[in-house]
Amino acid sequence: MNIKNKTSNKSNPIILIDGNLYLYRFYYALPKLKNNFNEPSNAIYGMINMLLNLLKKYTPKKMIVVFDSFQKNFRHSIFKEYKVKRISMPDNLKVQIIPLKSAIKMLGIPTLCIPTIEADDIIGTIASKESKNGNKVLIKSYDKDMIQLVENNINIIHNVNGKVIGPYEIKKKYGFSSKQIVDFLSLIGDKSDSIPGVPGIGNKTALILIKNYGSIESIYKNIKNISSLIIRNSKKIVSLLIEHKKSIFLFKQLITLKLDIKLNIDEKLEFSNPKILNLCIFFKYYNINTWSEKIKDFDFFYKKKIPKKKMNNFTIFSENLEKNINFFLKKIKESSMFSFFLHLDTSSKKIKELKGVAFSLSSKNTIYFPFNNKTSINNFKAIFENKKNKKISKNLKEDSQILEKNNIVLSGNQYDIFIESYLLDSQFGEKYSLEELKEKWINNKKKFTNIKNKKNHILNENDVLIQAETIFLLHENLWFRLKKNKENIFILNNIDFPLIKVIEKIEKNGVLIDKFILEKQSKKNILKLNNLKKIAYELANTSFNLLSNKQLQPILFKDIEFKKIKKNKNGNFSTSKYVLKELSLTNPLAKIILNYRKLRKLQSNYLDTLPNMINPVNNRIHTSYHQTLTVTGRLSSSNPNLQNIPIRTKEGKRIRKSFIAPKNTIIAAIDYSQIELRILAHLSNDPYLINAFKKNKDIHLLTASEIFNTSILNITNEQRQKAKVINFSLIYGMTAFGLSKKINVNVEDAQKYIDIFFKKYNEVCNYTKKIQKFALKKGFVSTILGRKLYLSNIKSKNIYLRQSAERSCINAPMQGTAADIIKKSMIEVNNFLTKKNFFSKILMQIHDELIFEIKEKEQSTILPELIYIMENIISLKVPLKVSTKLGKNWGEIN
User: Are 421 and 478 in contact (CB under 8 A)?
Assistant: First the structure.
């Protein structure tokens, strides 16, 4: 089989491999493998396994393994110590090189080694040339020198997790661009190449210098200003820079890769035909059993294209585009409905350019238009903005945002496949692919257990045609099912579809951030973490990784009676949060670990990430909301997740303080008060609950009075707090054991409280039994508005999964109804603000509250209206109530 025929697809990458680097890596990382003739084979096995897996995963256009010649080069002549500390190659590795190169040749993969030229320079030259020709290049290397090559078309394959690293990831990890790694390493040195760097300048100092000045040259231009930077011993740093100036520029010359090596052997860098029989013999000789049989079918390494169903269903217009577009525009006017799929170039994380668009006018007519210099999405502006055509999308919010960036406003009736699927079964939303939804709703053959995320898969033209057709087919099928139920159509037309535009607007609004508050807190938090680490080391009498359960186990359980400690699935002693909490009552180290992990999570999730998410143009953070990810119907937030910032801790409050109001505005939070308990009163029709809410009584005081058999006037704050926990825990179906842990009482007392609660609120007890019985029979529960919430494990044979689903079914109707209520409020509030042309806007939706940015001059007019809308959005047997808090930042109102 000729590999050349298999690699004609222009979207397939070119892979360049640093051969020597991986020779050493596999030799030292893998066990000392030997074949039946006692010949070493670990480096051979590791390299072959890596190459075959790369072929299988990427289907590359080219793959080249580059080796060093081991001869001295120009770097040795200008710096005698260059690579002087490198250990000579072990004999057991030397003997593996010739057979390995022979095997690579049998695979049809070219190798390259040029005398007196380093492999890094060869890779750099090839990568640069191929990138300029418009090819995607992937470099398999973990040498820091290679980072300087990274750009949009040149990426690195991560050594451990296999992820592709581009400019965005480099910037995120190091804090500077890929090109600046040369300047950074010139200061700190590169041990692997025996480049010492500047003594006294470490990573932190170098990072500050590079961030402030960008390059070595710029540092020296600004040498007089360095002493004013916030660097420890800044004057000494200036002195070191002056003293080592000549060396630093020499180091930069050594580290900078040459990209102009004369190769003149392009024809030798193509794949050749693999020698399958020879490979089979070679693999058997070296006991590489994993591949000895698979290699016989070399197609195994190449991704099979999705077969086109019927070629006459698909049309790709690549020539006479203008003429064909005009013909299509006339034709589509006759069509009342079409699906569309925007073909994005997803090879870069930052810039996603449109490569083309596909339309499906029916299940038998799908058309693709690629874009070029003369053709773009704007050729189809009239179609997208036509109010008469119905448009079907896989994700209306995302597609609308892309079109809006191209000055196109999507108009007319619009349908979203994921939202339609989600309404039919809340387990099947955007976390599944279109192909999986098709199998669920149309083929109906597969039950999904694993979610396959195909968002990063680079689609070709055939993929795009299939996607557009699948969207059309899914809508036809889903709509047929949906319209059988009036509640479904009501929810879609009055909540789910209108909410898309509202969410889009909220995301666009963003929330203003004071970066300095975050940076200040980050510094304080790091000091606390270091202090906690120091105390932990002293208590343990050794240093260890406080996040590592494996390292913590022998330290923590050394002097503890093992019988009392819970074990995990592997039979090891658990260091879960629950166990640490138990131990912290008597063990100071456990308490330190808990605090450390809490602060470390805060650092990594927010203090390190939020500053990088601030839009430099408007200083705002723009989160993303998702309508179809939670089973209960609640919205979820990501990039960043604003709903998970701790609310009850000082640290969480400080983070919220960085979310600020602009000049002449305030932050307002309008929060539904005890909404789930009010919904419970409505659903259960419990007279005591309904009466309490109608008379605006404190439900927690009433519960405390019943449980502790005490007059309301004599209830303590502690008793009220326990009653509050009981009220909310029981609507989550919590057991006596769970409640005992929550309020720190024994299981018998917890059960007594539950019995008293359900005796008082007898109809609530009846409701929980009734809803569990219904869920077991139907497999779902419903919200007040009729949204079905499915419980996949309600009939599970696994007792733990089934009991969890039984508890969930009690609360799901309340959570789901609360979600419907907040969504309806978002739509009505947005309509009010838009119609009246107010400057005030919705900033965030967090659980049961809406956060607003309100102009001070509009406050007296807007607030009463917002409260009225939210309290009257739906009619229940008890009144809905909201609480309002105002402040100059989010932290003040929590």
Answer: yes
